[in-house]
Every structure is written in C-alpha cells, then in structure tokens.
Amino acid sequence: MTQAVNEPKRESLLLNLLLNIVIPTVILTKLSGENMLGTQWAIVVALAFPIVYGLNDFRRTGKINLFSGLGVLSIFLTGGISLLELDPQYIVIKEAGVPGILGIATLISLKTRYPLVKTFLYNDKILQIDKVAAALETTGNETAFDKALKNASYLVAMSFFLSSFLNYALAKYLLVSPPGTEAFNAELGKMTALSFPVIAIPATLVMMGALFYLFSRIKSLTQLDLDDILIQQ
After folding, report:
1. In angstroms, how far apart are the furthest CA atoms of the chain?
2. What is the pLDDT of residues 148-180, one digit of tens each?
3. 121: nearest Cα among 196, 14, 230
4. Which residue has the higher pLDDT, 15 or 150?
5. Model pLDDT for residues 177-213, shown as the tens digit of each residue
6. What are the boundaries of each domain within the chain?
7. How far apart are CA 24 and CA 190, in angstroms?
8. For the whole model, what pTM was predicted?
9. S-S: 20 plus which of 50, 103, 124, 160, CB 3.0-4.6 Å?
10. Nearest one of 118, 122, 97 to 109, comparing CA atoms
C-alpha cells in the first residue's frame, strides 16, 4: 500500500498536448501581433509552457527523462534561434538533427554493453527483466534474444530517422518568413500544431511495431505469457 502511495502520478496525455502543442500554437498564431504580445514576447510566452512542463516533470519524478530533456533542449534552441532572428535554416537543421542524432546513437550503442534499445523498450519499467533473463537462460535462447534486441534496435533507429526526415520536410516547407516577424511566428505555431499528426504519430507507430516485435520474441523464446513478465501498473 505504501509503495502505491509513493508512486508518482501518471502523466496526463491531455495536459501534455495542451501545454506542449495547443497553447503554444494559439499564442504564436493569434497573439503575435503588435497590438497583442508582439513577435518576441509571443515566442517567449509560447515556449515557456513546454519548458515549464519539462522542468516540472523532472521535479515530479526526481530524475531526467531522456525525451523530456531533449525536448527542453530543443525548445531552448528554437527560442534562441527565433529571438536572435537567425536564418530559419538553423531551425530546419535543428528539427532534423535531434531525432537524427538519436537514431545514430541507437545504432552505435549496439557496439557497446549498453544498447539504447534497453532504455527505450527493454527496461524494468515495462518488463520483469530478471524473470526474462532467467527464462532465457533456462531455455538456452540468450543468443537468439540478443539477435532480437538488435533487430528491435534497427526498428527504433528507423523511427528516429523517420522523425528526422518528417521534421526536416515540415520545417523546410513552413518556415519561409524572416524571424522577428508576425508571419514567422504564425509559421512556427503551425509547425508546432502539425508536429503531432505529421511527425509524432508515424514515428510512434514504428516504435510500437518495435515494441510488439520484441514482446513477440520474448514470449516465443522464454515460453512465458506476457502477463507473467509485464510490470503490473
């Protein structure tokens, strides 16, 4: 009972979408006029919502979430480039660069003792790792499972590369006005609004495919039902 009380509250998807997408989009597209917040203050206020959300997530959980950390960094870069009125191409490069680097890091990590797929998919927040390891040792399928982890890593990397390409294409298509203008803020707001359906959904589907593949291989190689090895929430 005490453990359940001490567990952090689950993240609200509605609040996530509201603070990271809906509110920044409305501010950038509707409040950037000189008779409202103005172009620079609109950017500051709009980006403050996802930044505060990410920092609060760190305060709430007490540890750095990889994706939240990268999200905050990405927002800081977007805000800095916009407020300094640098060429929009820097934002285009940044949008493609963050997920692209994650994809490359996922592939490189396969050569190390700590492949990133264990952070993304095969971790003790989702699975009873010790139970899976014991079952793999009993069935003699440890080598086959290592191959399955490698295949899952390729799928995870593919999701990041897909996100990188879609980020680049969306930013390249939308960001055509000079920074510091109301038109640029509107384009930035539109890019924020479209990032979920255009980028997040396809990349998440690929990531989910990797997760289902890994679960399927675990079930086959350990002879255990998923209900027996999944962490019960």
Report:
1. 70
2. 989 999 998 999 999 899 999 999 999 888 888
3. 230
4. 150
5. 888 888 888 888 888 888 888 888 888 898 889 888 9
6. 12-229
7. 10
8. 0.76
9. 50
10. 118
Looking at residue 170, its pLDDT comes to: 92
Who contacts 18 (Cβ-Cβ below 8 Å, separation ≥6)? none
Q: In 10 A of CB 221, how many CB atoms?
A: 20
Give the whole-angstrom CA distance, residue 143 versus residue 222: 12
**Residue in 176, 2, 6 with CA at minimum distance from that of residue 91:** 176
- Residue 51 tokens, joined: 């930044």
3-class DSSP state of 26:
helix
Q: Identify the DSSP state of 64.
A: -
Which H/E stretch holds residue 187?
helix 182-194
The residue assigned the tokens 């799928």 is 155
Decide if 174 contacts 191 (C-beta within 8 A): yes
| CB within 8 Å of 197: residues ≥ 6 apart | none
